[in-house]
Amino acid sequence: MKHYIGIAGTNSRHSTNRQLLQYIRQHFEDLATVELVELDDLPLFYKTTDRSVPAEATALAAKIEAADGVIIATPEYDHATPAVLSSALAWLSYHIHPFAGKPVLITGASYGALGTSRAQAQLRQILESPELDARIMPSAEFMVGHSLQAFDEQGNLEDSTLTKQLDGLMRDFGIFVDLNAQLTNSLAAAKPEWHETAETEA
Fold this sequence. Notes:
Distance between the termini: 42 Å
Shape: globular
CATH topology: Rossmann fold
Number of helices: 6
């Protein structure tokens, strides 16, 4: 069975994005285990003088490296990803590269009608940058709008159309993970380049 890391891009205790990941973990337990991780303990990103990375970031990086894939649920603040998520990704690309070649599925929930379309687009750009080099699930956007009303008391999605869409998306993500495992040549070629960058960056 596949093992995924679920990241809610928020430090809110009552986020509907965390609720979405909890639903995914429970509803698709026959397809994969989903381990939810929090970003609360990560400090805001800053360039350390000795190029060190906080233990909280290296621990999260180890989980990501060991997983078959990552599912990120991002809120949208001012048409962008939250600062806490951007900061976490900065640590996870600072002389460490856990996302390199890692399959990622982007999702999001928002109080408004538009879901998190702009934040998801920005997050895709960040994750596809050379410093992170993640493999994003193509042609896949899953957005829960009006998220405060989207879940019932048991934490299930109320909208059957959304449920059906997510079901297909999760099954396709499993296929994408399997296919991605065969794409190793570009990743192997990039490793010396990362090492050189870590040695020479000011």
